[in-house]
Structure formats: structure tokens, C-alpha cells
Amino acid sequence: MPVVTIEQVASHAGKEITLRGWLYNQRQSGKLLFPQFRDGTGVIQGVVSRKESPQVFETLAGLTQESSVEVTGVVRADERAPGGHELQVTGVTVIQKIPEETPYPIQLKEHGVDFLLENRHLWIRTPRQAAILRVRDQAIFAAREFMHQQGYVLTDSPIFTPSSCEGTTNLFEVDYIDERKAYLTQSGQLYVEATAAALGKVYCFGPAFRAERSKTRRHLTEFWMLEPEAAFARIDDMMLLAEGLITHMIQSTLERCPRELATLKRDTAKLAAVRPPFPRISYDEAIELLHRHGNPTSWGDDFGGDEETILSSEYDRPVIVHRYPTAIKAFYMQPDPERPELALGFDILAPEGYGEIVGGGERISNYELLMERLRQNELPEEPFRWYLDLRRFGSVPHAGFGLGVERTIAWITGAEHIREVIPFPRTIYRLYP
Ligand code: 4AD
Ligand code: MG
């Protein structure tokens, strides 16, 4: 008897097969039983007749939701069945029966989100959550595939670091060995600047940590970032790369995850429209646009969620905002030689209110200027000695960006909150499970 997954049953129509999984749901109609099984690749409905298989009927009729089973049956094509196929069950082996007295906590009804998050280790079994995690896998695969195609080499950055990258207000400090302090990385950027000088075109892909006090639907304390960096690259090169990367992530997810996107009821027409070129507007133009919408942001202010939503609602694809005031950007940003009060940086704002998914730009390559910016930002020189070395030994113009994986996937899946698109979210209040 071949052991197959639910995803594969279509190619076994008319044949007897074995499935391994869990009892998802069950309904009885007179002498017929309709169990639904799930195995992580999908859900299939079974049929059992009391008359034809009395033993199987008895075993399944008393079985509790999420008990684990091995089921044998004949696959029948049936247009009315949810996945287009049904299983005529001929045998069942119960692996573990959940006792009636301690039922599976997540019933097939609406639950509050706090309850679901408390039971995240079980919540991920529901078809919607499983679909999101499959899309996440696909989107990440596509991202790495694209970087590889573009000739970028994966060089991972460390997680324990001696200094901050994105300001000191949201740094996680940890006790390192022998009474030394370390910080969890906020971004792998500084290290890919070093590997870019070693290998040319590189990227890192890993978790980043920020002690965010924000309770928005866009913030996690632990999130994943993909950060390309290239020697000799300029801001425009990085805009092009980011645009290509996002497009590839979207288009290949559309192509490879149609079932998951259908489970999520995602409006895929909106995603299909995401093609280059993305509109590019300067920070100055963005301020004007905000004023036209009656938003009071003044020149020099950073944008929050509200401003990002207004700006992105103007376009049917992501919008690139470039040349923000140097004062509101990180210490490493290269000033625009034509207007030094502006930084040669850019953000990409996703449509449909998902906010900033990319931040990046050109880095300061001049030693003296970088020293000055470290001082202005009250950052200590010692932990940045190696970073300053990059400006002493064959410094070149270089640029890169960071793409926030969860924000991008929240947009692709249409998730309400980014905590749904990472297996085990970490937020200001949540460290369990
Ligand atoms: O704009 P950010 O802070 O840029 C950097 O960290 C640069 N050093 C990256 C680089 O140039 N290599 O963060 C980049 C992206 C944001 O656009 C956002 O998508 C995501 O990371 N991000 C978060 N995602 C979830 N939760 C948070 N708290 C996030 N903070 C940033
Ligand atoms: Mg940013």
C-alpha cells in the first residue's frame, strides 16, 4: 500500500492508499460517517459506511478531534468534495487518541487572538496558519533563488555584536562570557559591508532583534531580514535590485502557491499587478503629497504608519521614497553631494497599508566623515574599529538594503498582523510558547 500525502492523492484516483495524519473534523449522517483528515499538506474528507465497515466505523465514530491516525482507503474523484477527491476508508489505526476529558483546546469555531497566540504551538495546525507558513517558505525560497541568480553570495552576519547598527534605543543587551556585554544584532548590514569588500556582491539572511515598545501590527521584537550589499553599487542600483527581488517573490508565490492563496482568500489580482518599474518619489515630493491629503507632517519629520498608508494608497504597486533628511536616518548613510541635508537612502512602502518593507541606500565610504557621524550620534569608536578599517583599506562607494521578511509576507498573504506570518512570534508582551 503506498503511503501518500493528501497533496498527492489526485494521482492515485481509483487506488487504495495509506495516509498518515490527524482527525481534523467529523460529521455523522445516519449510517454514514464523514471524517476529515489533515496531514499538513491538505485536508481530505473520508466516507465510512457502518454496514460495509462496522469496525472502522466504530473506531472513528468515537475518535476525538486531532487524534493521530493512519488511514487506508480508496481514492475517489468527486467534484463536490473540497479537494476534488474523497477517501473511501477501509482501515484505520489510531496512533494516539486524545482523551474525551482533555479535548484539543482549539475547537473549530472562532477564538480570541490572545487565546490563539497562547496556543500558537497548536494554532499552526489550522489550514489558514499552515497556508501562511507554506507561503513564507516559498517567498523565502524565491528570495534566495533571486539573489543567487543575480550573483549575490550568502555571507551570514553574527547575532551577538559588540555595538548597535540602528540606534541605541531598542538594543537588546545580553550577558556574554566573563562579565562582558553583547548586543543582539539589529541588522547584519555592517558585516555585509565587510564581506562585500571581500566578495563583491553579498547578502545575509537571518533574524534581527529590536526591543520595540510599539504595539503596532507591523512590529516584532524578533524578525527576519534579507540584506544585500554590493561594492561599487549606488542608490539607483539598489532600488533596481529591490524592485526585482520583490517582484520575483510575489510572482513566484502566485505561481507556486495558488492553493494556499485561495485558502487565505487573498485577492491575487492586486499581487499580479506588482511589476517593475515601481514609482519613485523623493522625500520632498512625499511631503507635498501628504499635505495634499491634509496630513500635517512637516519637512524633517519621519513617517509613521499613517503617513506610509497615505503615500502607498496612491499606487497599485510598492512605492520607493528616496532622499530622506540625514537627521532622521542612521549614522552610516551617505549624504547627497548636491544637498548634504539629504541622505542617499530609500524606503519601499508596500501597498494596501502594509508599510515599509525595505530600507537601504548608499553608505559613507569616507573615513573622516564616518568618524564625525559616529561622534554626532554619540557612538563609541572602539567597537566600530573594524568597521572604520573598511574605510582605511581600499574604501569604495557601496550600497545595500534590508528587506523585512515578515512585513513582505504579511502583505503577500493579506495577514492582519505580522505576528501571524512567523511560526513563533516575539512581541513586546509575548515570549511564550
Ligand atoms: O529600515 P531598517 O531599520 O533598516 C536597516 O536595518 C538597515 N540596516 C538595512 C540595510 O540597509 N541593510 O529595517 C529594514 C526593514 C524595514 O524596512 C522593515 O521591513 C523591517 O526591516 N523591520 C521590521 N520588521 C518587523 N518588526 C520590526 N520591529 C522591524 N523593524 C524593521
Ligand atoms: Mg527603516
What is the strand and helix layout of this fold?
Elements: E1 16-29, E2 32-38, E3 43-49, H1 54-61, E4 68-77, E5 85-96, H2 113-118, H3 120-123, H4 127-149, E6 153-154, E7 160-161, E8 173-175, E9 181-184, H5 189-199, E10 201-209, E11 222-231, H6 235-256, H7 258-263, H8 268-272, E12 280-282, H9 283-292, H10 305-312, E13 319-322, E14 335-336, E15 339-343, E16 345-350, E17 355-362, H11 367-376, H12 385-389, E18 398-404, H13 405-413
Parallel strand pairs: 3-5, 6-10, 12-13
Antiparallel strand pairs: 1-2, 1-4, 2-3, 4-5, 7-9, 8-9, 10-11, 11-18, 13-16, 14-15, 16-17, 17-18
Helix pairs in contact: 4-6, 4-13
The protein binds 4-amino-1,4-dioxobutan-2-aminium adenosine-5'-monophosphate and magnesium ion (MG).
Residues 165-166, 187, 189, 210, 212, 219-220, 223, 225, 227, 356-360, 400-402, 404, 406-407 line the site of 4-amino-1,4-dioxobutan-2-aminium adenosine-5'-monophosphate.
